[in-house]
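Problem: given the chain below (76 residues), write out its structure.
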Amino acid sequence: MGRMRQNAAMPDLTCRRCGRPVERFADQFDLFEQMHWVCFHYEFEHGDIDPDWVCAAGGCPSAVHSPTPRPEKPRD
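Solution.
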């Protein structure tokens, strides 16, 4: 699962996307492809839209800042 921390019995869980330690939801580290939940969301669920816009996935973290979906682009 990962190397052990020097002064703890807990494995060293490093996010594959951002390189920071995973602490919260560490029990779901493998479920989220060895990433933070939010990193997993933006990598696999958010799609190609700007991360500042809320996506269609339930629980999108961008909803905190932008609760409405991205406006549709005008069609030619």
